[in-house]
Design a protein that fits this description.
The protein has six helices and 29 strands. By secondary structure, it is of the alpha/beta class. A six-stranded mixed sheet has the order 8-5-7-6-10-9, with no helix packed on it. The chain binds adenosine monophosphate and magnesium ion.
């Protein structure tokens, strides 16, 4: 059976970034820039004042004090009409262009202006260029300001706006079809009859896809019947990723692996050394002139399905979208004793807190892979390695943080 790390490696080996599309900047937040963006202007576009004050010739203040005639006022958005000569100063506001002749700005706090249009400055002799940001000091025209491969965050939205870009080329969001399988399933808006349960995995996985940066295509429920299962899977194979839940264990109605293979999906692996999530099935369906469709047969038990999504599907979606999977594992201190038994690494639901300069992890009461409700109290999964061990309060453990609804 594959170890978690080897399974992830096998999956990522089949993941290739999708093609690029152009879209408005605000729709592209969280996506990856597909081409370098260069500035169309110098920034700042002119030598500008960094403070409110007086633009002067630095030499005037050599003695530490100067009495100057105020020749005009320039606010941001205006342009100076007059050059500053010896014995003169221009009142200037932050962001406004520096008048010619001036080579320093003295802060308004160092000035006393009198009613007769004169100002007395008392300050240390200024260096040439004091409180002036030179044209192009931040960015020069033609310079690459955001390189291809960068994730667009609010910061990048600001920079794109600064250089006049309202549309950008970005790597597409992967489309992810979600299909729940099982004769026992009814949609969430129905009351289950005898032997039935509601389909919780389908909506949960669709929400997880959106949160991971994919576009979810909800295919509903397929029964454990080869024909109807095939028909639903064929529909799902046109997406970049197909997520199935259920039908991948060893039961008599666990038909998913055989139906997938019959439909031309190549099996990459089946079963991972992992708890919960052991029955995970992964394969690829090759496509003409397109990267293959990735097919995940996730286990039916809701926590198993969720854990497999967190450990594997999230990383695959990130890679298709051109992103590295963000590292979400942190070391933490156990806050109570915990006895772990088992021959598989176990991901146990937990609460993680950052307190007194370190992470602390507390396991939550959990009844196993079908107990999804317990995860409502969890924000992390403690990774207990395989083997029996009695952990003590204060022992260090590795903890996988669960992400809330964001993917950058
Ligand atoms: P399976 O792998 O199909 O044998 O399913 C394992 C367990 O998960 C069974 O108890 C199923 O009833 C349950 N299960 C399967 N699919 C879902 C689903 N979509 N939502 C909730 N539970 C499910
Ligand atoms: Mg089933």
């Amino acid at each position: 059976m594959l170890a978690v790390a080897d399974a992830l490696k096998a999956i990522l080996g089949e993941c290739h970034p999708l093609g690029a599309v152009k879209m408005p900047v605000l729709e592209a937040v969280g996506l990856v820039l597909a081409a370098d963006v260069a500035s169309d202007i110098d920034s700042p576009p002119h030598d500008k004042a960094m403070v409110d004050g007086y633009a002067i010739r630095a030499a005037e203040l050599a003695s530490g004090t100067a009495d100057l005639g105020v020749i005009e006022e320039v606010t941001a958005g205006a342009v100076p009409a007059r050059a500053v000569s010896a014995g003169e100063a221009t009142r200037i506001m932050t962001g406004a262009p520096i008048p010619s002749g001036a080579d320093a700005v003295v802060m308004i706090e160092r000035a006393r202006e009198s009613a007769d249009g004169r100002v007395v400055l008392v300050d240390r002799p200024p260096a040439v260029g004091q409180n002036i940001m030179r044209r192009g000091a931040a960015t020069k025209r033609g310079e690459v300001v955001i390189a291809a491969g960068t994730v667009i965050r609010p910061i990048e939205v600001g920079v794109l706006s600064e250089v006049g870009r309202t549309k950008v080329r970005v790597v597409s969001r992967p489309t992810v079809a979600v299909l729940a399988t099982g004769n026992e399933l009814v949609p969430a808006d129905q009351t289950p009859g005898a032997g039935q349960i509601r389909n919780s995995n389908g909506p949960m996985l669709a929400a997880a896809v959106t949160g991971a940066g994919g576009v979810a295509e909800v295919l509903g429920i397929a029964p454990d019947d080869p024909e109807r299962l095939s028909a639903a899977i064929i529909e799902g194979l046109s997406a970049d990723v197909l997520l199935l839940s259920g039908g991948v264990s060893a039961g008599v109605l666990d038909l998913v692996p055989n139906v997938l293979v019959d439909l031309g999906v190549e099996r990459v692996f089946h079963k991972v050394q992992l708890k919960p999530g052991k029955p995970l099935w992964f394969g690829v369906r090759r496509r003409e002139a397109k990267p293959p469709t990735l097919v995940f047969g996730l286990p039916g038990n809701p926590v198993s399905s969720f854990v497999c999504f967190e450990l594997f599907v999230r990383a695959a979606i990130a890679r298709l979208a051109g992103r590295e999977n963000a590292i979400t594992v942190v070391p933490a201190v156990l806050t109570e004793p915990f006895s772990h038994r088992g021959d598989r690494p176990t991901y146990h639901p937990a609460r993680l807190h950052f307190i007194n300069g370190r992470f602390e992890a507390t396991p939550v009461a959990w009844k196993g892979s079908s107990d999804l409700a317990a995860l409502v109290r969890a924000n992390a999964l403690i990774q207990f390695p395989a083997g029996d061990r009695a952990y003590q309060t204060g022992d260090m453990v590795e903890v996988h943080r669960l992400q809330s609804h964001c993917f950058v």
